Amino acid sequence: MSSSSAASIQQHFSNLTDPRTRKVTYPLVNVVTMSLCAVLGGADDFVAIADWAEDKKEWLAQFLDMSSGVPSHDRFNAILGALKPAEFEKCLLSWITALHEVTDGQVIAIDGKTLRRSFDAASSKAAIHMVSAWATVNHVSLGQVATDAKSNKITAIPQLLDIIEVSGCLVTIDAMGCQKEIAEKIVNAGGDYCLAIKGNQRLLHQAIRDYFANAMEIDFTKRKVHRHETHEKGHGREESRYYYLCPIDADDFPYASK
């Protein structure tokens, strides 16, 4: 299969349910293709999508049946608004993955952000928190899961790992994602992980602090260590960072076998 066919919108959106029950004027693949291309071209509302498609009719006719022309902005609104979000997300993720093949060995950063102005005081609706996976080499979002509570990030991360490909990649997550179940899920999927440790894992955090404190006192004598340091200047200050990477010795570390 050629790379162009592997990244075909028609192929990856073939399982998307058409919400219209009557005879249709505009094929669903036309509506989806026009919308995706228009948004990628900078369109930010339905009027802009319709205007973009009207300007690009000749180009679109190279791979779409344009005999019915371009839908109005109201038609774009009605059709896209009736699609099943979960189905569309699955198709979109499949298409994006085909366009941006995840580079073997790259870093996938998983992080959560609170959407601005998503809190509705009138209905007491909680703010929306999005947990997303970002492929750092390809500069593309591989997927995201919404949750209405920041604490639910622990449950959202496994859901996100179910829909993205992490095989051969290094997954980084902040301290909230430092859970045995999450680490196990990444390893079972063929990936590696780098998890931050903070006070939410009190005993493990203290054990790591003690390990490195003792090692630094003897300048890592008889211990394998990789060192790295950076020095930066900016905003009237100098910042130095020192990194020490050590393999864990089961005889020296109480959590090595847990």
From TrEMBL:
Q: Name one GO molecular function term.
A: DNA binding
Q: Which residues form the Transposase IS4-like domain?
A: 104-229
Give GO terms for biological process: DNA transposition
Q: Which InterPro entries match?
A: ISAs1_transpos (IPR047647), Transposase_11 (IPR002559), Transposase_11-like (IPR051698), YbfD_N (IPR032806)
Q: What Pfam families does its record include?
A: DDE_Tnp_1, DDE_Tnp_1_assoc
Instruction: Please state every residue range assigned to the domain named H repeat-associated protein N-terminal.
Output: 11-96
Q: What is this protein called?
A: Putative transposase
